[in-house]
Design a protein that fits this description.
This is RTX toxins. With 226 residues, the protein is mostly beta strands. It is built from one helix and 16 strands. The protein has a five-stranded mixed beta sheet with strand order 6-16-15-10-11, with no helix packed on it.
């Protein structure tokens, strides 16, 4: 069993089991289990950490073989932000996505990746990974949510959770040059190794359509029936 000291506490990190049953077809087989995440030295990379385990064999006479290294390569499991899109209709319509989950599986990586930043236009907004959700106004020109160039271009409110959940609520009346208005923003996740991943998400607000139904006047209808 491999251990590490964290804040004065001994924690199990890895486990190795060796089959030394001479009658077994798996005699000499090593089973390696990584119990906890291991810090990797290179940030922003799925680098490989090699662990050298000295091993030797002993015969029935008690003679030892030369010691050799059993090399175990641990590949860094970095977070992966999943590029997704949100499409809503103006008038308080809302929709939610999770950019750290895909096909029912978490993509935050073994080192507990969390959302740490979103970028709207040229504005970088920090997400506190230890806090709750944060809300930002979203404008169709990509201007700073705290200091918009034109407040009338409000698309809606963006709600961002560190665990990857993002919800967008459309404004009541969104200025549109056509049937819809869209904007791309970037979302960044960071894990405890300082590995990061950034992907875009697209938010679209469709124009609400009004339908006018014309009914034939009663007098005209009666004349037609004669």
């Amino acid at each position: 069993m491999g251990v590490a000291s964290v804040n004065g506490q001994q924690l199990d990190i890895l486990s190795i089991q060796i089959n030394n049953d001479l009658t077994s077809s798996d005699f000499g087989k090593f089973d390696f289990e990584l119990i906890r995440a291991i810090d990797h030295p290179i940030a922003d990379a799925a680098d490989i950490l090699s662990i050298n385990l000295p091993v030797f064999v002993q015969d029935m006479d008690g003679d030892d073989s030369a010691t050799k290294n059993l090399v175990v390569n641990v590949v860094d499991d970095v977070p992966e932000v999943v590029s997704k899109s949100i499409s809503v209709v103006e008038g308080d319509d809302q929709a939610s996505i999770n950019v750290l989950r895909q096909s029912g599986q978490d993509t935050d990586g073994a080192d507990d990746g969390l959302l740490t930043q979103i970028t709207i236009g040229t504005t970088n907004l920090t997400i506190d990974p230890d806090g709750g959700f944060q809300s930002f106004n979203l404008y169709s020109d990509g201007s700073d949510p705290a200091n918009p160039t034109d407040p009338s271009l409000l698309m809606g409110v963006l709600e961002v959770h560190p665990d990857g959940r993002i919800r967008f609520t459309a404004a009541d009346d969104v200025q549109q040059g056509g049937d819809a208005v869209s904007i791309d923003i970037s979302v960044t996740a960071t894990d405890s190794d300082d590995d990061t991943d950034t992907k875009p998400i697209t938010i679209t607000v469709d124009d609400i359509t009004s339908q006018i139904t014309l009914s034939e006047p009663a007098a005209v209808r009666m004349q037609a029936e004669r």
